[in-house]
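Hi W.,

Here's what went into the run:
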Amino acid sequence: MTGVDTGAARGPTLAARLGIDRSVTIAFGCILLILCGGALYSREFLSPEYLLQQLQVGAFLGIIASGAMMVILLGHIDLSIPWVVTLGAMMATAMVGWGGAAGVWLCIPFGVFCGAVVGVLNGLGVAYLRLPSMIFTLGMNAVVQGLMVLHTGGFAPLDQATPAMHFMAVQRSLFGIPNAVFVWALVGIFVIYVLKRTAFGRAVYAVGNRESAAYLSGVNTNRVLIGCFAFSGAMAAFAGVLLAGYSNKAYQNMGDAYLLPAIAAVVLGGTNILGGRGNYLGTIAGVILITLLQSILSVMQMPEAGRQVIYGCVIIAMLLIYGRGAKARS
Amino acid sequence: MKTGALSNWRYWIAHNAGVLTAVVLFAAMFTLYISNHSAGLTPAVATTAANKAVLLALVAMAQTLPVLTRGLDLSVGMVFVMANCIASTIVVGTVGEGLLGIVAVLLIGALAGFINGAIVVWGRLQPIITTLATGAVYYGISLFVRPGPGGDVQSDIADLLTGQLFGAIPAALVVLLVVVLVVWVPYRRSVLGRAAYAVGSNEQAAYMSGVPVQRAKLLAYTLAGVLASIAGLMLTFNTYSGEASAPIAGTYTLNSIAAVVIGGTSLFGGWGSAIGSIFGAFVLRTIEDLLFVFDLPPLWQPLFQGVVLLFAVSLGAFRILRVRNRLELFS
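Here's what came out:
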């Protein structure tokens, strides 16, 4: 498949090949700006310890955003993320009780598997029933919520995370870098590999650009849709498993705080919400940006009300700078 | 003449099939509910049902307008909650002060909707992401106004609007009827109302035909804000308090979209009506009441509601049976 070269005859520039475009540059610029602003407030903001801690917190969001990005690249959206995160956490911790000795080993794959199942159902609804993804995944979110309320009996479950979950989410085994960052890096490398080096990745961009054209070119578009939604569900559940390890338990509504940040991180990273355009570097930038923003607002002891307002305004403002739609109407 | 009248009649049924389905569904379910209710259809039972149903009906009407232009407003629930919080602060005192407060809340709702519309129209951002972000802002404002649940409301107005007229008719239904007659009917007949349908069907064609695309979208989002704030006012009159609750906002946003779909409005824009959404909202509310009279264990209710919701939105899949060419699926 010959790509469309944007530059001169020499092919794409190094920056373009690495995926550094305008939005990625602006996003990284904003990260620097926030860090400098924070440094004026307190020296602590530039300490390696603080930055590593932010990366660790950001890793959970990064894993969720990886899945969300695959779906957004298709021009769809996955609004079932909140309860799939909770589903992953609850199923993984519950599996320890159900499976006994084997459960300790099976719990993490089982949690991710449950998320992938929800993702496949999302994909089936979008691909075969041709329902708008936004409304179908919202409905799915409600169904999963119902299942989890039934599972826990409306109370916080008493199950606890296993040492393996705790190890992945909290501990630091190499050079003091949190393990969660390595997990995010693995997920990121996988996504970059799939998007850049496989036919499936090409098909994701093709479907996002124009599904009918991809279909006529022989792409099995339904398979692509189901694959991406399954990945999104699996990653949301995986992040849920890690979050359970992080806080040592699963609880209701633990995923609610992740939907808007995940979508915002992907979109702020330059991925087009209508699909077909975007790269993973941007998503990394978006995740770090959102995490830093949240952290700084909470360090400054901004009340929740102010945080929500600033948060929404920053997203709108940044999108107005570079995320605007085309003006041409014809 | 007779065949002409007959074909007109047929055309009308075909055009309003979605609304009629919702009306029939609601009538059947409500009859089932009343026949299983221990008290039967007394004014008190009807008023309780109406007070709950009208809230969702108003939010669903609000959601309908952007959807008709092929947009979406994920902030309706947040505007609803924001209006509730603000109303519990300023709709107090004498009747006159209360009325002034009501006007202020409506203006704030209109402003919130206008901001959504302005960002969508002039900022050229996608409605989903715009309203997701502005929703966070409106929720922040709600929290700012009312950090904890509480507040009060002018009780004379509240009692009048949530009680019964002539001892029989639920006043909330009258409010809904007035909103339909004062907001929806003139809107539907106005140039900008028809423009909204045109924009939803095909924005480029509408633009080429000289339809005021931008003003139609702006008005749709602004009116959505007004309608959502009317719902917020009614919530305040029902509960006599305000609460900045994210779950309430989320539930109402979700259910408003479901009500719009059940009411026969196309999420792809250009087709449907707010009347359908009202009955869609009534259907959703009656489902909850049915769960109550049939004594479904409380733990099963969220799951049951979720499944009903998923099923309701899946009804939209019937359109694929009408598709003759597979390529039409991708549009």
